[in-house]
Amino acid sequence: xxxxxxxxxxxxxxxxxxxxxxxxxxxxxxxxxxxxxxxxxxxxxxxxxxxxxxxxxxxxxxxxxxxxxxxxxxxxxxxxxxxxxxxxxxxxxxxxxxxxxxxxxxxxxxxxxxxxxxxxxxxxxxxxxxxxxxxxxxxxxxxxxxxxxxxxxxxxxxxxxxxxxxxxxxxxxxxxxxxxxxxxxxxxxxxxxxxxxxxxxxxxxxxxxxxxxxxxxxxxxxxxxxxxxxxxxxxxxxxxxxxxxxxxxxxxxxxxxxxxxxxxxxxx
Length: 268
Ligand code: OOG
Ligand code: NI
Fold this sequence. Notes:
Keywords: Dioxygenase, Iron, Oxidoreductase. A hairpin with a 2-residue loop joins strand 8 (218-223) and strand 9 (226-231). This protein has helices spanning 6-20, 22-32, 55-58, 60-64, 107-117, 141-150, 152-160, 180-189, 254-260, and strands at residues 40-48, 68-75, 80-86, 94-100, 166-170, 202-204, 209-213, 218-223, 226-231, 234-240. The strands form two sheets. An eight-stranded mixed beta sheet has the order 2-3-4-1-5-10-7-6, with helices on both faces. Strands 8-9 form a two-stranded antiparallel ribbon. 31% of the residues lie in helices and 24% in strands. The N and C termini lie far apart (37 Å). Helix 1 (6-20) crosses helix 2 (22-32) and helix 6 runs antiparallel to helix 7. It has a single domain (6-264), classed as 2,3-Dihydroxybiphenyl 1,2-Dioxygenase, domain 1 (Roll).
């Protein structure tokens, strides 16, 4: 069933993401044993900056649903650019969309990505649920490995396509956990591994945002030459501090995000 409105789309995104990544289901269900509900701080999406699929394309259902563009971020070393979007309702998840700057990569990578994007059926990128369509192209395992050599992000995107890369627990709204350290201890007690790049906690009270994340689940993905187990999606945890006006800070911190991206890298 194709989602027709934003609530339905967000629900479908959560359903597909939590089915694909068993750790997400386990952590979420465990939290629900002591919480009435778990609020999402944000949802993150990835893409390539080709005009057929760039941020301007992926942002559409959110803009139609009342979201506004808020911040932008540059990631020089990873060759990424990102924007975040907010809804007037502070309980609606913020949306973080990044895109790979193709022009900064080799002709070979550009050629490969073009061949993937050329496979997207005519008009599919205009579908309301395109952001959650999955992988609309065929891919063989050696092409995936080749992309990874230049960019972990390029490889992840080729293998998984359009789908949330992570949802994020808004730790401030939990009743049973009151800090990010407490959240991390909880995750470790459940026996899940945290991304330790840049330390278990990225950011601090000084930058008004603390974040941590699991290492992505390894899942079996279908390639044209068979199934292979590769990193899929992760779960993130965010704790926000109030700004001088007294409202919780709602932006992102590029230096922290830079490390969070690595939650889908192989071999940490
Ligand atoms: C996004 C990483 C950045 C954050 O909250 O800073 C991020 C990604 O892995 O695609 O989500
Ligand atoms: Ni995030």
